[in-house]
Amino acid sequence: MVRVDVGTRGKSPGDMEIIRQRLFNTRLTTRSIGRSELICTFVDRRRSRVCRGTYFLPKGRIVVGGSLLYRQFYELAVLGGTGLYDNARGSLVVTRMGVHPVRDRMVFRLVG
What is the pTM (predicted TM-score) of this model? Predict the structure, then answer.
């Protein structure tokens, strides 16, 4: 993760978090099955941010977006996708499972 501090020093509106992660399904393989790229922009001095991201998977991409307060547990809307996920809608729920290293469980609920 990279933090971009704009304007006033410290957390302030407009600051960004850029997150890139490798994705795994350890039930299937020990190798990475894809990656995610998210950009979050803070809207206040605390924790509130608006995020948009893409999940790159073997059979297509899933685009998500929405607001969140805590990266330990959040839900984003599925805005669409490509390939197998063309016209997908639904939600993504992320739950932090560990911090060293960071491990998140992601559950996509797709329709369409």
Answer: 0.91
| Sequence-distant (≥ 6) Cβ neighbours of residue 29 within 8 angstroms | none
> Per-residue pLDDT tens for 30-84?
999 999 999 999 999 888 999 999 999 999 999 999 999 998 999 999 999 999 9
What CA–CA distance (Å, rounded) separates 53 from 69? Answer: 16
3-class secondary structure per residue, the chain: CEEECCCCCCCCCCCEEEEEEEECCCCCCCCCCEEEEEEEEECCCCCCEEEEEEEEECCEEEEEEEEECCCCEEEEEEEEECHHHCCCEEEEEEEEEEECCEEEEEEEEEEC
CATH code of the domain in which 104 resides: 2.40.480.10
- Identify any residues that bridge with 63 across adjacent strands, giving them in sequence order: 54, 80
Number of domains in the chain: 1
* Cα 17 from Cα 1, distance rounded (Å): 7
